[in-house]
Amino acid sequence: MGEATIIVLLHYATFFSDCIQPTMPMKRFCLTLILILGFQTAATLNAQQVPQLGKASIEELVSAMTLHEKATLLVGGYDLGKNPDGTTRKKFAAGVSMAIPRLGIPFANYPDGPQGVNIVTTRKGIDKKLYCTAFPIATMMAGTWNLDLVSEVGAAMGNEALEYGNDILLAPAINIHRNPLCGRNFEYYSEDPFVTGKTAAAAIRGVQSQGVGTSLKHFAVNSQETFRRENDARVSNRALREIYLKGFEIAVKEGKPWTLMSAYNAINGTTASENRVLLTDVLRNEWGFEGFVMTDWTTTSYFPRNIVAQIKAGNEQMMPGRQYQVDDIEAAVAKGTLSMADIDLAVTRILRVLVKSPSYKGYKYSNNPDLAAHAALARKAADEGVVLLKNDRNTLPLKDPHKKIALFGFGSYNIYQGGTGSGEVNTTGIVNIDTALEEAGFELQKDLAATYDGVRIDFKIGEKLAKLRASDCDLAIFTIRRNAGELVDRREIKGDFYLTNNEMASLTNVSEAFHAAGKKVIVLLNTGGVIETASWKGLADAIVLPWQPGVEAGHAVVDILTGRVNPSGKLTMTWPVAYMDVPSSKNFPSNFEGNSWFKGPVRDSFDPNKRNEGYTEYEEGIWVGYRYFTTYGVPVSFPFGFGLSYTTFDYSKPVVKAGKKGSYTASVTVTNTGSVPGKEVVQLYIAAPKSKLEKPARELKGYAKTKELAPGESQTINITFDAYGIASFDEAQNAWVTDAGEYTANFASSVEDIRQSASFKVKKPAVLKLKATLR
Ligand code: BGC
User: Fold this and answer.
1) What is the pLDDT of residue 92?
2) For ligand 1, is residue 277 a contact (CB within 6 Å)?
3) Which residues are paired to 730 by β-bridges?
4) DSSP readout, 493-543?
5) Nearest to residue 145, comparing CAs of 217, 196, 215?
6) Given ligand 1 and candidates 226, 264, 296, 598, which is best to mutate, with the most ligand atoms within 8 Å of its CB?
7) How far apart are alpha carbons 524 and 561 in whole angstroms?
8) How many CB atoms lie within 10 A of CB 648?
């Protein structure tokens, strides 16, 4: 009982003895009254005196907090989940920030993830299931190259997060597609940091427009799942700056995420969450980040982390959080290894974010977002993300009313709408390809449907069956389906990167039989990541890549097949001829049999000295993706930026003009020269003059998607960039350097398909020296 309460009780007691000579029952009544009134008044006085979040300044709040309260805020609520009334709190999201009701600090809920909001579907007191919308996977969203659309989808995700009572969405995830076999590539955007950063900034702006926050993750260099919690990524300063940090830099500066999530892995020997250079010198001092950093979901008993080092590094919140971490903080202060100033800074940064949260604002969420409208948006997004990889002899669109389709492959009947792991979404009403084809009026060969429904394991379509179907159907559609996700990297084996023997034999037989009958074969790739295509692509007349397109999957596929929508998606990564053509393949845990999760506690199986498990050498440096293939002239199956359309586009002669403060504007006019409306992704690749640094032949420094251009219609695209945007990182000077000299601005339809070029001069070199270095 506080001092104020005692004063109040004394006051009532005096009043009582002065005024009344009570009987016993009366006495009891009066005493009860005294206590009730006393407590109520005390509570009121307490609330008036104790600073409240949002009303008092954060400084006042921090000085009113006990050490225990501060420590509680710095540690997530994994095993501390109590409601303010003392009942156990049922978590409905991956993470919880603890409430301190005395100070008006709310619980805050943090759900995953990049493809949509991931919450549990059941909640006490609510009799309906709480479903969320699965939008197209992140890779596919980036592949729309349409930043407004990315923001629109972000806003819809933010709205669902809000309407289901959440505060910070654990997305977007922006690690670089260093290698095609990273299990989580589907959650990430691209092999290119510019596309990555721009897409992330657009997604962040969208989500945050709804008043909920984002957590940009996993900062940084989390490029493999194998031993992801312990792996030490050994990367040069240049590759860090140009490839692995650049996307984060753009997203932080342009998107202003409320929070970041530090990665599990170490970078050059220091765990990301304990890395002060990364979290303070680079993130805050160089890039101006103003939010707070949370750890990735570290099970600290298996993977020891130094909480003092984490807080000192600038990692404010430890997730998912365990009681003993609170104790550790208190003990560290008692021992003098952690200062109150460090704690106060971390608390201040968290409170500055929480005061913006819906939970703080007491937002009355409905548990009823407009899922129908969001499904329509998911379809629109998927329509723009599908990539047309091949279309010989105008196989597509399917203009003629085909009587009958022979629909092969499990994915045709049961599509993978998204990847696996924390980024999964409990979605409902997934539209399959067979359903959507029938809805659109196509007739499907019935026995095939029954076979794929009945047989559960991979099987071969023999020559006989292929011929039979070629005789009674007009067209073959063959879906190849792959899935991957968190915890496990993919493998360079048949059934994953390669087709299985049965898939290859089936596709060969179908292709031969249908072609012999003068009929065509379309292959659909229902995958979250890159697979080998060079050896079999000749068997198909058309290849369509719908990725993992979210809840409206089948509709999006049929929109493209029928030409209701003209494809305008483009690849945000290179599809190599062979896996070993990818430079990082020599230093990636290919065909690794296990991982830290499935093998149990890491100490049993983790060997810090084992290549690609304990540590990974990023020996390829900056030569990631097209930067390598284009510069070294290595043939690819499908290049970065590639994607066909049902129409054709002409690019005018471009102009590059120097503007103020070292900026440039590159302009080109694009005209639809075909016969159907369509959108074009205009890509600007800059080639730098020769200098002492070896540089990629060209690098993406800008892009824009046209509006839908009617046949004959034109649009002028203006892309602005500046000297900093075209700089390279010189390790010798620890500086971003823009050389003087003649540069070329290439306007292109893919990195290998330059349509027009113009040169421009940088008159004076620019050097931006940095203090921080991570190696
Ligand atoms: C993943 C994060 C995710 C978190 C919470 C971690 O294992 O790496 O991406 O946000 O779990 O589910």
Assistant:
1) 82
2) no
3) 735
4) SBTTTB--HHHHHHHHHHHHHHHHTT-EEEEEEE-SS----TTTGGG-SEE
5) 196
6) 296
7) 10
8) 16
Q: What is the pLDDT of residue 400?
A: 75
Encoded tokens for 302: 């298996």
Nearest CA to ligand 1 atom 6: 297
**So what's the pLDDT on residue 78?**
77
Residue minimizing CA distance to atom 5 of ligand 1? 94
Q: What does the DSSP assignment read for 660-671?
A: GGGEEEEEEEEE
Q: In the β-sheet with 259-262, what is the strand arrangement from edge to edge? A: 168-169, 213-219, 259-262, 292-295
Q: Half-sphere exposure of residue 140, counting CA atoms within 13 Å on the CB side? A: 36
**Statement: the pTM of the whole predicted model exceeds 0.70:** yes
CA atoms within 13 A on the CB side of 101: 6
- Alpha-carbon span 243 to 228, nearest angstrom: 19
Torsion angle of C-alpha atoms 489, 581, 242, 570, degrees rounded to 10: -80
For residue 442 the two structure tokens come to: 């196509």
- Stretches where the chain sits below pLDDT 50 are 1-27, 29-45, 594-603
Strands 232-234 and 266-267: parallel
Residue 245 identity: L
Q: Is 574 exposed, middle or buried (0-12, 13-18, 19+ CB in 10 A)?
A: buried
| From 227, 230, 422, 424, mutation site for ligand 1 pocket: most ligand atoms within 8 A of C-beta | 422
The pLDDT of residue 487? 86
- Measured from the CB, is residue 422 less than 6 Å from ligand 1? yes
Do strands 213-219 and 292-295 pair parallel, antiparallel, or not at all (unpaired)?
A: unpaired
Q: What's the pLDDT score for residue 683?
A: 98
> What is the H or E stretch that residue 630 is in?
helix 626-631
pLDDT at 604: 58
- Provide the 3-class DSSP secondary structure of residue 627: helix
Q: Is the distance from CB of 587 to CB of 617 less than 8 angstroms?
A: yes
The reported pLDDT for the residue numbered 399 is 83
Residue ranges in 20-110 assigned as alpha helix (H):
24-49, 58-64, 67-74
DSSP string, 693-740: S---S-EEEEEEE---BPTT-EEEEEEEEETGGG-EEETTTTEEEE--
- Give the three-state DSSP class for 274: helix
Longest dimension (CA), the chain: 112
Q: Is 539 in the pocket of ligand 1 (CB under 6 A)?
A: no
Q: Is 194 within 8 Å of 246 (Cβ atoms)? A: yes
Ligand 1 neighbourhood includes 191 CB (under 6 angstroms):
no
Instruction: Name the amino acid, one letter, at 772.
Output: A
685 vs 726: CA distance, rounded Å: 10
Locate the ligand 1 atom nearest the alpha carbon of residue 95 and give its number: 5
Q: How far is CA 84 from the centre of its chain?
A: 33
CA-CA distance, 43 to 36, in Å (whole number)?
11
Tell me how crowded residue 769 is: count the other CB atoms within 10 A of its CB: 10
**Ligand 1 mutation pick, 96, 97, 109, 112, max ligand atoms within 8 A of CB:** 112
End-to-end alpha carbon distance in the chain: 55
Q: Which amino acid is at 564?
A: R
Tell me which residue has its CA closest to atom 2 in ligand 1.
296
Task: Tell me whether residue 296 is one of the annotated catalytic residues.
Answer: yes
SS3 747: strand
| Pocket flag, ligand 1, residue 170 (CB < 6 Å) | yes
DSSP state of 90: P
168 CB near ligand 1 (under 6 Å): no
Contact 669, 715 (CB under 8 A): yes
Owner of token pair 């293939």: 629
Which residue type sits at 59? Answer: E
| Catalytic residue (one of 167, 192, 296, 434) | 296
Query: Is the Cβ atom of 596 under 6 angstroms away from ligand 1?
Result: no
At 212, which amino acid appears? V
